[in-house]
Amino acid sequence: LLGLFTAPSAETDVGKEENSRSTWASNVYVSSRTARDHGRSEFGLISNDAQFTVTDVEDSPEGAPRQKVVVRQGLDGDGPEVATIYVPKRGSNKAKLPPDGFGPLSLSLPSLSGCSEYVKDLLHYSVDLTCKTSLAMPACDVTVPEGSVVEGIMDQKPLICINFDDMTMMVPEPQAY
pTM of the predicted model, to two decimals? Predict the structure, then answer.
């Protein structure tokens, strides 16, 4: 699952939102048609099929083992590249700060979706998470090829990569806003 979120959503595709603390799911890539169809029909998400190819990379500048995740459109992987993401390798003794994480923490993330070809209404819901969190060390590196559908979203913005371990996520039925 690759989800790109903008937060806070002071301005969305549906207009300006004063004092908003919600996130807007702008692009979602999943490796399952069932997940794609559910995201589209229930939440109006712009969910897309994707193939995720993960390989180990041992030559990171920080000396910590990393993994390279290449995301391509389409389940067969022959579509255009969306992005390449370098993440710390799970299980590495340098992968998390602090090593045991914080928590468990309970988070409630108000979210907006819809206003798409799949669901016309603006939907509001809260994603409730319980998990242990830690910062991924070193931070994630993302490269986006020219012409990628996420090129304008990424625009060399700094990324914070967060590990979510032992996560439970509850998402109630969305409500029209």
Answer: 0.70
